[in-house]
Design a protein that fits this description.
The protein has 139 residues and is mainly beta. It has one helix and ten strands, in the order βββαβββββββ. The protein has a seven-stranded mixed β-sheet with strand order 6-7-8-9-4-3-10.
């Protein structure tokens, strides 16, 4: 077994009600904490943890999430039953990346965030991870 909880090194997860399940073939290439306004509004959280996988390594394995297409050319998916936010895919800036909410991973503790993104939009009461990168550079 690896830190991901999968014997083959894959990472798996799903929504609160279990209707939608996902799998990534291999570990994330990054784990970040996003402080942007849109992530906070989409999730209702003070900051959002994201696991970043190559888009070709990510698969939905059961259920079909709903998709919200944003005005910034990104797709956010969520469970149509329980509302759990699942993924973020930006077609323009990062077409090769699939961001998956850390909280939906079966073993989210295995992937603590190592970088903050959009720190300039951080709420005052949220603690930063510490290794801040410039806005728009999510890798």
């Amino acid at each position: 077994m690896t830190a991901s909880g999968q014997a083959d090194g894959a990472v798996a997860g799903g929504c609160l009600c279990g209707a939608v399940r996902w799998r990534a073939d291999g570990p994330p290439r990054a784990s970040v904490l996003c402080h942007c306004d849109t992530c906070r509004l989409a999730t209702g959280a003070g900051a959002v943890g994201w696991l970043i996988f190559p888009v070709e390594a990510f698969h939905m394995v059961s259920g079909t999430p709903e998709t919200y297409h944003t005005d910034t050319d990104a797709d956010r998916t969520f469970c149509p039953t329980c509302g759990s936010p699942l993924t973020y895919h930006h077609h323009g800036d990062r077409p090769g990346d699939m961001d998956v909410t850390t909280g939906t991973a079966d073993d989210g503790d295995a992937f603590p965030p190592t970088k903050d993104v959009f720190l300039e939009e951080k709420l005052a009461w949220v603690t930063a991870v510490g290794d801040t990168i410039k806005t728009g550079d999510h890798a």
